[in-house]
Amino acid sequence: MGGLDLWFREIHKDDIALGVRVKDVLWRGKSAFQTLDVIDTEMFGRVLLLDGLFMTTERDEFIYHEMIAHVPLSSHPEPRRVLVIGGGDGGTVREVLRHPTVERVDLVEIDRLVVDKSREFLPTIACGLDDPRVSIHYEDGIRWVRDRAGAYDAILVDSTDPVGPAVGLFAAEFYADCHRALRDGGVLSAQTESPFFDREEVASIYANLRQAFPAARPYTASVPTYPGGYWCFAWASKGPDPAPEQVRERYARLGGGLKYYNPEIHAAAFVLPNYFLDLLGAA
Questions:
Q1: CA distance 59 to 164
Q2: What's the burial of 132, exposed, middle or buried (CB within 10 Å: 0-12/13-18/19+)?
Q3: 201 phi, psi to nearest 5 deg
Q4: What single DSSP character describes residue 59?
């Protein structure tokens, strides 16, 4: 008799799904906020699931984490203090620490279990969490940002989908608080869902974001394990857009080793298809 053929499927909006063959279930549990699973798969290696949804995988995590971190930080002349909201797996923090000007990173993650299990099962992603420049705070990012006017050069919102405890991370009030928490010239990035499958959510997110950041712009990347593979992020700033030569200079200071992000990708990521532009116009 043959062995078991085990698959995991992420169901997105009841109409589409992504399936992966499972080698092993490494951990299953539940925190006060969500269910958490770590599975080992044939195609993507180890995978972190929250409430049955792909959060990060060993094979393609570099795309998401490089893009949410390096696009905003390469847009800032000298980022020193950085806030990461969510991102308890540590991948965004790892990328932030590549920037030689960074002196302090505050990681605000509501769920300690995400950090603990990422350290245990995803060490190549969580490897930056013990850096002395990093302070981890197990708190609600919405509350955290309210009382920190002018505290940060960059805020990176590495959140889950806009459901459950993450809903408030996509609200106009939260973006206004982020604007106040940024210093002059500060930058913000945030993951903002699929412009193809999450049209209503994306339109609402950018309508909210532009109440606080009139110059907010979306940019995109191809992340295979997210619905449709075409994912968008928000870039917003309290200063001007970066000049191309500035981005190239910042990239040179990263010291190599990146697998997705480069200055050409930085520029191209802001080029949007017409259906996405129409969606933003409707917003």
A1: 27
A2: exposed
A3: -65, -45
A4: T
C-alpha distances in Å from residue 242, one per residue of 63, 100, 147, 175, 247: 21, 18, 28, 21, 7
**DSSP 3-state assignment of 34?**
coil
Question: Which one of the listed residues 158, 161, 177, 198 is annotated catalytic?
Answer: 158
**Tokens 């995590």 belong to residue:** 61
For 130-145, write each residue's pLDDT tens digit.
999 999 999 999 999 9
Q: What b/e sequence results for 46-73 when a residue is b if at least 16 CB atoms lie within 10 Å of its CB, and e otherwise?
A: bbbbbeebbbbbbebbbbbbbbbbbbbb
Please report the pLDDT score of residue 1 as a whole number: 40
Under-50 pLDDT residues of the chain: 1
pLDDT tens, residue by residue, 106-162: 999 999 999 999 999 999 999 999 999 999 999 999 999 999 999 999 999 999 888
Alpha-helical runs (H) found in 224-273: 244-253, 263-268
The whole-number pLDDT of residue 3 equals 62
Q: Specify whether 24 is catalytic.
A: no
Domains of the chain: 7-55 (2.30.140.10), 61-282 (3.40.50.150)
What does the alpha-carbon distance between residue 238 and residue 235 come to, in Å, rounded to a whole number? 11
